[in-house]
Amino acid sequence: MLVDKVMFGRYIKTDSWLHKMDPRAKITSMFLFVVIIMIAHSLWDLLLVTSFAIAIMASSKIPASFFVKAVRPLRFLILFLFLFQLFFHNQGELLVELGPISIYRGGILLAFLTAWRMILLISFTSLLTFTTAPLTLTKGVEGILEPFRFLGVSPERLGLMISISLRFIPTIFEETQKILKAQASRGAELSDLPWKEKGKMLMSLLVPVTVGAFRRAEDLVNSMEARGFVLGAPRSQYETLTWKVTDTVFLSLFFAIGLATLLII
Amino acid sequence: MAIVFHNVTHAYQAGSMLEETALQNISFSLDSGSFTALIGPSGSGKSTLIQHCNGLLLPTSGQVHVMDFTLEPNQKTKGLRELRKRIGLVFQFPEHQLFAETVEQEITFGPKNFGATKEEALGLAKQALHQLDLDESILNKNPFQLSGGQMRKVAIASILAMDPDILILDEPTATLDPVSRRELLSLLHRLCKEQGKTILLVTHRLDEVLAYADKVMVLKDGRLAFHGTTEELSNQSSMFSDLRIRIPSMLRLQQAYRRRFPGHPLPTDQSAEGWAKHLGEQIALCKMSNGKEEAGEELC
């Protein structure tokens, strides 16, 4: 099934220490991780970052297969980046030359490093949604955006938008699945058809799903209004975020790794 | 046998840590041309079960035989077209699957996919509209401009137009008005008895289908809790309280009648008129046999 294959944005409950962390710490450290990946250029840098990332991923108690599934959808992009670096980088010793294709030693190294960084980036950052429930994540984003309020950013509005979209991803997926099945029962089986026919059949899927999304949006607006929802009005919170010592330690770890990659050349 | 389940178990996301068993060891068989009602609380696996009947889902273990097709675990889903052609599956809220610009395109979509020519499909569409008591003039209308009830009927017509041998419907009467509900059920009954179609109807309103159904299946927590005729169902009052389903009023009437008039036959015609006539006859019979009215009342 389609839903089984998509791992992005999914919450996996294993109750590890990562699950209990403050989402703000996790979001900030993910940003730091992206920066670290950017500045990690040498093989040794990457080895250090990789071992650090694997240690944290292992401590999340989430099976490795989930990380593999998270990377899978982007395998073609990674392949493209790999080939791009392989063919168009021309430093170091010339190894192969076949007509217009020439492969250099530097190209091979860079291609491997690029693919490696990409895989590391996707699998590690998927940890954020794996270990953070959508609502907590939204609160974290709101918290992070709080300092930017003076710039005209409204954290509540953004938070609400994010939480609604996250909430409706599985719903719309489910609905899509249902309509796929309903149309398959009417003889419109996408996988059974040649490509040209597939395009036509796609309409029988897209129209109902779009109509359904609008119907849901309207229902949601009405029910929010019926409950007297006002954006930005003072609200009591069911759960509040608390910054603990572990959060500070966690974040410092990333700073330390970042510094280390800067120092190792 | 139209549909046979043989030790069917189905688990969603089998083998992963999110595995969830929806059906456990289900075995049953439905005769061709029979009308079966499938009931059970929400989450008991009704929708999962019916999706096995045309290969939308495959069993995790066990086998499903539908007419001369066999569905097994990990089978290729290609080539199920022939099966799907002969099985009409009406999902819950079928009006959500409407997509075409006109009702005609909508209803002829299924038949055309299964190889009918334009003329044949139009003929089938008109026939389906008649069966659902819709006017032919709506063929040129946009389905999204119809009322909710009409959309539902058009969606059901789009399945009927495929002229399937087996019709499976998932709560088709929910949110319909009482008149349309009765009309739809008697249409299904007619299709079953006159055209020999096999009907499997998922419902929450046992009351409503009891008069039409030959057999009743009850699902509970993914297991088959009961499968038998509607008469056998009347001995199962403990199961109903177990399942938190209200005993259908027809069964309550029969039980009350048996308590009040032990040993007397039930009316052959189970409709309201039939009952009234039967009770009248019973009272007259009592009066005749006893001469005195008071004594007769006591005896009966």
3D architecture notes:
- The complex is a heterodimer of chains A (265) and B (300).
- Chain A is mainly alpha-helical and 265 residues long.
- Chain A has two domains: 1-153 and 242-265, no CATH class; 155-231, no CATH class.
- Chain A contains ten helices and two strands.
- Chain A has a two-stranded antiparallel sheet.
- In chain A, strand 1 (94-98) and strand 2 form a beta hairpin.
- Chain A is flat, with a radius of gyration of 23 Å.
- With 300 residues, chain B is an alpha/beta fold.
- Chain B has twelve helices and ten strands.
- Chain B has helices at 46-52, 81-86, 103-113, 118-131, 148-160, 178-195, 206-209, 230-233, 237-243, 249-260, 272-290, 293-299; strands spanning 3-12, 20-30, 35-39, 61-66, 69-71, 87-90, 166-170, 198-202, 215-220, 223-229.
- In chain B, the strands form two sheets. Chain B has a six-stranded mixed beta sheet, with helices on both faces. In chain B, strands 2-1-4-5 form a four-stranded antiparallel beta sheet, with helices on one face.
- In chain B, helix 11 (272-290) packs across helix 12.
- The longest helix of chain B has 19 residues, at 272-290.
- Chain B is globular and about 70 Å long.
- The relative contact order of chain B is 0.13.
- The mean pLDDT of chain B is 87.
What's this entry about, in short?
Chain A has 265 residues and is mostly helical.
| Radius of gyration of chain B (Å) | 22 Å
Count of alpha and pi helical runs of chain A: 10
Structural class of chain B: alpha/beta
Low-confidence stretches of chain A: none
Mean pLDDT of chain A: 86
Task: Write the topology of this structure.
The complex is a heterodimer of chains A (265) and B (300).
Chain A: H1 2-5, H2 23-39, H3 43-59, H4 64-71, H5 75-88, E1 94-98, E2 101-104, H6 105-131, H7 134-145, H8 155-185, H9 195-226, H10 245-263
Antiparallel strand pairs in A: 1-2
Helix pairs in contact in A: 2-6, 2-7, 2-10, 3-6, 3-10, 4-6, 5-6, 7-8, 8-9
Chain B: E1 3-12, E2 20-30, E3 35-39, H1 46-52, E4 61-66, E5 69-71, H2 81-86, E6 87-90, H3 103-113, H4 118-131, H5 148-160, E7 166-170, H6 178-195, E8 198-202, H7 206-209, E9 215-220, E10 223-229, H8 230-233, H9 237-243, H10 249-260, H11 272-290, H12 293-299
Parallel strand pairs in B: 3-8, 3-9, 6-7, 7-8
Antiparallel strand pairs in B: 1-2, 1-4, 4-5, 9-10
